[in-house]
Specification:
This protein is α+β, with helices and mostly antiparallel strands and 388 residues long. 46% of the residues lie in helices and 9% in strands. Helix 8 packs across helix 15.
Amino acid sequence: MQKDFHYYATYSAAYIAGYSHEESLAVAYSAQFVDMCTKTYLKGIGGPISAATTQLQAELADARTDIIGLQDITRIWASFHFLPRNLSINPDQKCSRKYRRKFRLICGPNGDLLVDTVKLAKGKSLEARGIAMHVLADTWAHQYFAGTPSIVINNTNEYFYEIIYKDGKPVEVPVKFRHNPTAADDIENSIYTNTVQQGGENSIMNLGHGRAGHLPDYSFAIYRYMPAWANYREVIKDNPMDYVLAFTQMIYALKYLKGEYEEFEKDKYDVQAIMPWEDRILRIITKRQLDACEDWKAFGESLSGCEIPDFDVDKYRVEYVKATEEEKSHTVLGRFNLAAMAQKSMVTNRIYNSGNRLAGFSIDYSEKGFKGIKDFAKLMQEKEVAND
């Protein structure tokens, strides 16, 4: 998903869920900041490198693809953008253990890890809730892809068709891919940019939905294609339906985090909450445009009657940099960093305990004590203070 959904639509979901304008902005800011918080950014503010929630193209280009490098990549992308749906599922075909482990990292909605993600944010900061909403939303947009480099999982072939409704009738248009990252997608002619095909299993070009370009990130897109993980059998992806489910599930999740529900359950959506604006929301989601920020912003502002400021990645930078070490954890970026490390630690631990080492090793702090990366010592200290 893009800024239009992670920032403006998340603001709208939070406001519909009963959050104030200021609270909705805080949730939305952190939901979008997940796509901005790189190691490069954290080094620039003196933050904990382990709190990185994404990687720049330049960082990925320089990333190691040995076992240590791949584990680092997987920890980031599986934790925040391609949350695995089922860590124990087996592929239909016979394959090696290595392949089965990658197959189990395929992203999808309504898995046990989604429940863990939302519950992890319960009773925590608004920043933690924003991170959870980013992860939740991406389980819908990024389903069928894995947050680890893999040609046998993430590759697609030339059989790729976009389904466009004209005069109320579906028309299938062949998708044409190009590899110029500086060229804007041409939605009028169904020309999109994707990564260059690489035969190497662990090539960065085979990370996530790179082989499908930005199609998973466009709410209007309906397409059928043949992914490698399905042995190149046809799969149909209906983004408009999935984005509506993502939006209504965010409302339900945010109400749970606000205390309106005792439990967060899978496959549950607050469809009733959007009934007054259903037609408008559907028009925004199905409109063929590269960027829906203007429409989602106008909708959010019509809900609250307040202005939604443009997203500014450096809005809280000075606050964090000038804070003392004791104060940093209580700044916006400090709370975000702690929540990000908690999410990454939880997902890595679940993957590790499933017998899968693709995200690296994980230690149960409650049983073993702190023996991990020093950045996480601060997270442990915060937990101890909260339990006092």
